[in-house]
Fold these 3 entries.
Entry 1:
Amino acid sequence: MGDQFNYYLNLMYQTDLVNASHNLTTGFSLNLDDYTEQLDGIDSGRREVVPGIYSEYNYKPSEHLTLLAGLRLDYHNLYGLMFTPRIHTRFDIQGHTHFRLSVGKGYRSPLILAENNHFLANSREIIIGENIRQEEAWNFGASITHFIPLGVQPMSISLEAYRTQFIEQVIVDLDSDVNQVRFNNLDGESYSNNLQAEVTTQFLKGLETKIAFRYSDVRYTIGNELMIKPLVSKYKGLLVASYQTPLKKWQFDL
């Protein structure tokens, strides 16, 4: 259905500021993409040229606190100027509890035909709206991990909460017409909330178990109505048991 060629150039400079607690990395990049996408008279191929500069600052005043802040400034030949900030922090309490916070922004150029080729199996007509914009979103996240001295190795208990708030997004509309699949720009609100809990432990030597549960709330706007995104499970669970023999020649996973 199409071809994709990608070329990436990255030059980086790194230096320590004042002392080892401060570290600054700067550089510039050049990304070239040449896409060919054609299907039944639809031609969505394009050539992207994206030069950019970036800087990343790492501050670590002690072994218990780390702050990482980054900025990117890119110019897209089709979508214009892109400003991408991001901040990560990590704080440890006596080596047993880790807190993490993150905030950042991201962009993504959609490849509608390549990413949605599974719709070809239902023989629906594909309708792509005019002036499809680049996807853009903010990400917010927080997590806490606590280690308990229990078993052969410390048991870890993790809680995570993340949210993605879309500013621009390509919406797949399957409901307006049963004979069509329509792709349009977001007109309204769209977000994704995820909560996850995970426990990992090793009570016996060589036997590791993991239990995880995730709740997802994913919604977008279609026809001026904020609705739950179809085919996305609200609840997900995972149970893993892995055993490795003492000589590490055999491993059993369930």
Entry 2:
Amino acid sequence: QVRIAKPFAAGKFEVTFEEWGVCVKDGGCSDNPQDQGWGRGRQPVINVFWLEAKAYAEWLSRKTGKNYRLFTESQWEYAARAGTTTTFSLGDRISPQQANYDTAGSYAGSAVATTRGRPAPVGSYPANGFGLHDMHGNVYEWTEDCYNSNYNGAPTDGGARSSGNCSRRVLRGGSWDDNPDILRSANRSQGNTIFRFNNFGFRVSRAD
């Protein structure tokens, strides 16, 4: 059980290539990652490893005077659920019209369709009850937390877990390349902090 101790603001969308490019131009981000030929602009930035995502949040904090950071794992799940207790924020099933995932797969009898096979521009699918888009699917989202295989000893105030395997960090949300079960609000994934993948991205939160 977690009680979020402090208010926070949540990015409505995953960070885009367009936004990332501003950071690169301003010198806050050192690398301009590959887009796999899928386009840039409002496409979610991909092929960024954890430290680069952190650098973006730190640059944004300097530019705005606000406290931006990656989501903690518990903040992320709170935001993704948007007040629900169902498997997904949209119910106990998810459909190809609701999120970008490998729609050839089915969960609890959900419909199947021809899969898109790449990320979609942010906001292409309906928002959840908190007005946040793509919390299920599109790209995985890096969080602040060090990876642990369970919640034993995890913070109960919404803070980030800074112990455990910190060379790997928690990823949430699933991606365009995943079966629908990976998109569940409760599902946890993890990745090496120095690896880049074409289905890894992030969004930012802000402390009030």
Entry 3:
Amino acid sequence: NKKITLSYFGEIDQNTGEDWENISLELSTGQPSRGTQPPKLFPWIVDFSKPFPTSKLLRSAPMKSMAMEESAGFSDMAAQTKVVQAGTSYTFQIPKRQTITAGTRKFRALITEEIFESDLAYTVIPKLSKRVFLNAKLKNTSDFQLLPGQSGIYLDGSFVGKHWMKDTSPGQELELGIGADDSIKVERKLIKKEEGGEGFFGQNERARYTFEIKLENFKKQAVKLTLKDQLPLPYHEDIKVKINQIKPKADDTDKQNFLTWNLELSPGEKKTITLDFQVEYPKGKVLTGL
């Protein structure tokens, strides 16, 4: 029904050494470890390289995200959590009192449960995968700041996988990967390959490729689908990529020769995309990448 139910929890590690009995709990999005000042911009210096540099820039390694663990407990939301905005952070006042014993890890306190309207979109990249992936785009219409963290995705009650949620402010858009949908089939085949032929001017070698991409919708409703493919991207002026036929024409071709089609498939409908191109290069040269 194109609706997303989001259950938002705070996870608490209780390491104080004393039990918390029947406490009033507030969760804050404030992160003091980030500091209070913006970073300083230094001059962008361009110089000739030196054979023996006297110093080098050290960069800290990125932090690894912790794997999700089973929660030690969770709290039911007896009433709506109150949101208090103070400065640059939000505080969530959990309505029900909690008991969290010392040493508890990953205690789950339910902050809120919200239902969002969403737009569903399918994406397929048949050169890399035969699976068609479903994404849901929605807007955070709640009063709650959604901090980054691991989430579990369920489709019609079935677990389909995990997703890393990004930091999402109230009013900001969010995209969720729902998983692969096997009721839409795709197949990409190389149906013709010609190598060693001459180019248009007789001084070049030519390699020609023809691909067919076949799509079929086995769902009982129409679907909108974005299909992506690509043409070779020459990194030398003597290498030319010529298009013989792209049918139907791609809706977008960017500077990296990525092709995008925005398609709509009716129930039971089949569609075929033909991609026919050739690469020309000087005789005697050896190409890499094809």
